[in-house]
Write a structure and sequence with these properties.
- The structure is a single chain.
- The protein has 287 residues and is of the alpha/beta class.
- Helices cover 37% and strands 20% of the residues.
- It is built from 10 helices and 9 strands.
- The protein has helices at 7-19, 35-47, 75-84, 95-98, 117-120, 124-138, 151-163, 193-199, 201-214, 220-232; strands spanning 2-4, 24-29, 50-55, 89-91, 143-147, 169-173, 237-246, 263-272, 275-284.
- A 6-stranded parallel sheet has the order 1-4-3-2-5-6, sandwiched between helices. Strands 7-8-9 form a 3-stranded antiparallel sheet.
- Strand 5, helix 7 (151-163) and strand 6 (169-173) form a beta-alpha-beta unit.
- Helix 6 packs across helix 7.
- The protein is globular, with a radius of gyration of 19 Å.
- The model has no long low-confidence stretch (mean pLDDT 97).
- The structure holds adenosine monophosphate.
- Adenosine monophosphate is lined by residues 29-30, 36-37, 39-40, 146-147, 149-150, 173, 175-176, 183-186.
């Protein structure tokens, strides 16, 4: 496994591999790897001739007062874990090389970036789209892998790739969870043991809403009210940022299960203690 820190070197390596006819897979990450990241790497390993991952804690996707500075980092462990899964290259650029002093260009996917997580993190998706676009420009992979854990991000990046005619496929991979259902996240590290125990309420509420829909409830507002009441009773949930039902393709909000609806995205962000957690599930509706 090779570590690449220089943007120019990264370009050269990719160019050479492409000229040799290698199919290149790319897994962008912010590091502090866990099984969720590894599931993406494993899939890339199966499907591609060469697997690149990037590790970059991207400053432009963190708002003021968010956890950019304290975001967990453990490069030594990351290298070991990525290497054990057969990663060929880890690209770890310096922030100063990625963003020049007078960086002025940002990618904004209109509307989609302002709903759900964008409501309380207004510049987050602008930062995400910008860094992913930059990484795609530097590391010209054939296919990039993303987790459904960040469902809104995935929809936004697919839209960006389509709108800007980017020559790359985006593959989505299922959310990897702990045994009790909590979605793996680098931020789970912030949770105290008691918060960790209670954090699973997020997944439980998503499953509860799925069950209600499967039981035939059509009124999604009613389900939402029941979920918010349940969350409100848990003293470890300090805030429910949102609990939404949406169309998984367009992210348009849904208030009812209407005739012909096949899939509904249930997505939520909550604050457990001082940690913001997100999760979602796609509910398949039987005809
Ligand atoms: P991050 O390091 O948080 O930027 O995540 C890097 C990639 O890993 C993103 O595409 C995430 O969606 C994906 N990812 C994070 N957590 C999980 C998980 N629990 N299951 C599957 N993919 C995940």
């Amino acid at each position: 496994m090779e570590i690449i820190r220089d943007i120019g070197v990264c370009r050269e390596i990719v160019e050479k591999l492409r000229s040799e006819g290698c199919f290149i897979g790319f897994v962008p990450t912010m590091g502090f790897l866990h099984e969720g990241h590894l599931s993406l790497i494993r899939r890339a390993r199966k499907e591609c001739d060469r697997v690149f991952i990037s590790i970059f804690v991207n400053p432009t996707q963190f708002g003021p007062g968010e956890d950019f500075k304290k975001y967990p980092r453990d490069l030594k462990k990351d290298k070991k874990m990525a290497g054990a899964e057969g990663t060929d290259y880890i690209f770890i650029p310096e922030a100063s090389a990625v963003y020049g002093r007078d960086h002025k260009t940002f990618i904004e996917v209109k509307d989609l970036g302002k709903i759900m997580c964008g409501r309380d993190r207004p510049d987050h998706f602008r930062g995400v789209a910008t860094i992913v676009c930059k990484l795609f420009n530097i590391l010209k992979a054939h296919r990039a892998y993303f987790g459904e854990k960040d469902f809104q991000k995935l929809v936004i990046l697919k839209k960006m790739a389509r709108d800007l005619d980017m020559d790359i496929e985006l593959a989505s991979c299922p959310t990897v969870r702990e045994a009790d259902g909590l979605a793996l996240s680098s931020r789970n590290k912030y949770l105290s043991p008691e918060e960790r125990k209670n954090a699973v309420i997020l997944y439980n509420c998503l499953k509860l809403s799925e069950q209600s829909v499967k039981n035939g409830e059509k009124d999604l507002q009613k389900i939402k009210a029941a979920v918010l009441e349940k969350m409100g009773k848990n003293k470890y949930i300090k805030k429910v940022h949102y609990f939404d039902f949406r169309d998984p393709l367009t992210l348009n909000e849904k208030s009812r299960v209407s005739a012909g609806t096949k899939k509904i995205l249930a997505a939520s962000a909550v604050q457990v203690g001082s940690t913001r957690l997100i999760d979602n599930i796609v509910i398949n509706i039987k005809e």
